[in-house]
Amino acid sequence: MAVELNLFDLERQLLAAMYKISSELNTSLNYPESANNVLKILHNECRLMCGMLTILDEERDILLIKSIHNPLPRPLTDEKQVYYKVGEGIVGDVLQHGSSIVIRQLGNDQRFADKLALYDYEKPYICVPLKDGSNKVIGALSAQPPQCRDDSLTALAKFLEMIANLIAKNVQLAYKVETKEKQLVDERDGLRRKVRNNYSFKNLVGHTKTMRQIFEQIRLVSRWDSTVLLRGESGTGKELVANAIHYNSPRANNPFIKLNCAALPDNLLESELFGHEKGAFTGAVKQRKGRFEMAHNGTIFLDEIGETSAAFQAKLLRVLQEKEFERIGGTSTIAVNVRIIAATNRNLEEEVSQGNFREDLYYRLNVMPMYLPPLRERIEDLPELAEHITKKLSMAQQRQVSLSDSTLRMMMGYSWPGNVRELENTLERASVLSESGVIVPELISFSQLDSQLLQPAKTHAANHHQYNTAEPSLDEREQVIDALERSGWVKAKAARLLNMTPRQIAYRIQIMNIEMKQL
Ligand SMILES: Nc1ncnc2c1ncn2[C@@H]1O[C@H](COP(=O)(O)OP(=O)(O)OP(=O)(O)O)[C@@H](O)[C@H]1O
User: Fold this and answer.
1) Is 431 strand, coil or helix?
2) What does the alpha-carbon distance between residue 481 and residue 501 come to, in Å, rounded to a whole number?
């Protein structure tokens, strides 16, 4: 471009260059990279040579070079070492005073520091400030135009000021995104530490031989990717152990995804497990990842695996065998790397022999079986568990919660059919009723369903109550609430405790006006 053109032609060409520059700055948030391209456009389209972008380092109060266009055949010496202090050289002057500087002949200017040995002393030089929303200087843009008339020089300086404004917007946006990202990463790391802490070994309470063996097993299985099958009654800590395995494994920084298989109706099954593409079926308004995809590089916890239908078992077997699947409505195959932990309180061997559970799936899952004993079989752990729970209650209620010795003795004589969950609920209920925070025997109300004492301990199955669909009594309402509490407010589990069908319990919850808790 000939700068000796008349002003009208020059402005037309600058406008064309401006179009290219604004498109360039629109494409990326990486401002040093887009600035490189902008400086190239300034050189090629406007003969504005040796363009340089410097940005303020707030901590050190100096301008650092972020981008430079060097037309010389040799590389610049130490360009990374070069910086400008406030008031130092022409660039430092722009930082100090916040106004543009236009020089007719660079070599004649006293302020010129010549730190880069890049510029032509005979030619003009322009340096303009980059300012943020509050008019504070955050950097400088400079370039060297060819010899030209005064009106052309003024037009080029105005043009550079416009470009500096655009770059300043980009720089601020990039800072905002960077700060937000850093905040999110800090928050994520904090939450990860908290979750890890919650599932560290110190939160698994128990010192009986069986529990010590379990802790040792957790430590060993955590190291590898082997599939684990957790067995044990409801409330014995299967989910807690699944978490502990994941958060103590090399996958700890990746997702832990829980899937309650009992709560999943067949019509939602496939979409829940494998996700769907937008428009795959009515209601699929956007693409959604399934649980297996979400768990990529992490762990999937398949709770209540014994409650699954034949359709579920078939789909699960396929993904366990092939480790890949397609989203509903999708054409591409998605491969995942997922560690499997499954849990059940059913006797799976019996389910297999009765034809309710696929044998091939059973063998796929039963690689590392772990059995969590019911609380009544490790009642010596109760004092330690009770202390652990009262500590948590003290924190939640911000006061000292404790147990009297007689309460502890009484609790040691009970069979705890709902296991540790029931113990937690019993102590929470009693602590709420306690004015002083001390839990005395009168405040303890054991589950109404199974208020038998430990000696002789009845089996759980022997305590199942029979229900019909006749109008329920007041007592029954209490029993349903109690069963829901003991099963963590999972309807399907509570129904099993009461020997009801899911439909029967849903009916009762509705007509008894029971408000479901979200845990
Ligand atoms: N060894 C333990 N130490 C401390 N807390 C425990 C322990 N075992 C269980 N708990 C607590 O008891 C409650 C029930 O445990 P969890 O949900 O893991 O049982 P679960 O066997 O998965 O039950 P379900 O089969 O009904 O899903 C949780 O709040 C858990 O933190």
Assistant:
1) helix
2) 16
* Dihedral sign, Cα of residue 372, residue 378, residue 379, residue 383: negative
Name the nearest CA neighbour of 518 among 491, 497, 483.
491
Predicted complex ipTM = 0.98
Collapsed DSSP state (helix, strand, coil) of residue 315: helix
Which amino acid is it at 293? E
Query: Per residue in 236-292, pLDDT tens?
Result: 999 999 999 999 999 999 999 999 988 888 778 888 888 988 887 877 788 889 999
Q: CATH fold of 199-373, please?
A: Rossmann fold (3.40.50)
Q: Which residues line ligand 1 (CB under 6 A)?
A: 204-206, 232, 234-240, 303, 345, 388, 420-421, 424, 487-488, 493
Residue 471 clears pLDDT 50, i.e. is over it? no
pLDDT at 475: 66
Provide the residue count of the chain.
519
At 84, list the tokens.
């400008």
Please count the CA atoms within 13 angstroms of the CA of 66 that sit on its side-chain side.
Answer: 25
Alpha-carbon span 481 to 484, nearest angstrom? 5
Give the count of alpha carbons within 13 A of 500, CB side only. Answer: 25
| Residues in a beta bridge with 463 | none
Q: From CA 391, how far away is CA 383, in angstroms rounded?
A: 12
Report how far residue 444's alpha carbon sits from residue 98's, in angstroms, rounded to the nearest whole number.
74
pLDDT band at 452 (very low <50, low <70, confident <90, very high): low
What is the Cα–Cα distance from 313 to 318, expressed in whole angstroms? 9
Pocket test for ligand 1, best of 218, 236, 372, 422 (most atoms within 8 A of CB): 236
Distance (angstroms) between ligand 1 centre and the Cα of 204 equals 9
Which residues fall within 8 angstroms of residue 291, CB to CB, at 6 or more apart?
257, 259, 272, 273, 300
CATH 3.30.450.40 range(s) for the chain read 7-178
- The tokens of 194 are what? 């908290």
Q: What is the rounded CA–CA span in Å between residue 20 and residue 13?
A: 11
On whether the CB atoms of residues 35 and 45 are closer than 8 A, the answer is no
* Closest listed residue to residue 99, CA positions, set 91, 88, 89: 91
Domain covering 376-460 assigned CATH 1.10.8.60 in the classification: yes
User: 449 with 417: CB under 8 angstroms?
Assistant: yes
Q: Which two tokens stand for residue 256?
A: 């832990």
Instruction: Please give the distance, rounded to the nearest whole angstrom, from the Cα atom of residue 98 to the centre of ligand 1.
Output: 64
Pick the CATH number of 464-519 from 1.10.10.60, 1.20.120.1760, 3.10.20.740, 3.30.1330.30: 1.10.10.60
